[in-house]
Amino acid sequence: MKTTLMKGRENTKKNDFSGYVCSEKTKMSLKIGIVGTAGVGKTQFIDRLSTNTFDRCYNPTDQYDIRNICYRDKDIEFRDFAGTQYYMTDNDLFFDLDVLIFMVDNTEISYKNGRKAASEILAKYAPNRVVLVQNKIDIIEDDKLLSRACKISVKTNEGIQELMDDILF
Questions:
Q1: What pLDDT sits at residue 72?
Q2: Could you give the angle at which helices 42-51 and 160-168 cross, rounded to 10 degrees?
Q3: DSSP states along 32-90
Q4: Whole-model pTM above 0.85?
Q5: DSSP assignment, residue 157?
Q6: What is the mean pLDDT of each run of 10 residues along the chain (169 residues)?
Q7: CATH assignment of the domain containing 114
Q8: Cβ neighbours of residue 108 under 8 Å, at least 6 residues apart?
């Protein structure tokens, strides 16, 4: 499988997580944007889907990355936006999204800042569907879990397949 990064880098990665290989005639193609404050796990989420790995090192996204992966016989273009307000709210890459994932973690600042950016994106670009995702549930106390969020742990892989099934099917 080929994973393409927008900034001219191209990597070939086997998608061990999905168990499928995308053919020329895939069943569905989606454009999914991921926003949230820095460090909530947006890039790690895509890495988990494409390679089934978790890297403990934090490497912040510079502006944005676009990566195409195959997941369960579906071609998905992920648009991973840096956790800064500017790149999350003033970017034409939001125009044709099928799904916007608004990712938060257990910190109040991630929810507060991410919510502001998500509101601005919704007002300006209107993606077809918005999904609230709370990452890092492996370290969150029960009283800090958001009731309406899809709960995942990129680190332990918990909830990721259910989230993707909800988005895709």
A1: 84
A2: 90
A3: EEEE-STTSSHHHHHHHHHHS----S----SSEEEEEEEETTEEEEEEEE-SSHHHHHS
A4: no
A5: T
A6: 37 39 64 90 94 88 90 90 67 84 85 76 79 90 78 96 91
A7: 3.40.50.300
A8: none
Q: Phi first, then psi: what are they for 124, rounded to 5°?
A: -95, -35
Q: What is the pLDDT of residue 146?
A: 78
Contact by Cβ (8 Å): 76, 97? no
Residue 17: exposed, middle, or buried by beta-carbon count in 10 A (0-12, 13-18, 19+)?
Answer: buried
Structure tokens at 54: 């978790």
What gap in Å lies between CA 60 and CA 70, rounded to an integer?
23
Question: Strand, helix or coil at 151?
Answer: strand
- State the residue range of the domain holding 43: 2-168
Give the chain's domain count.
Answer: 1
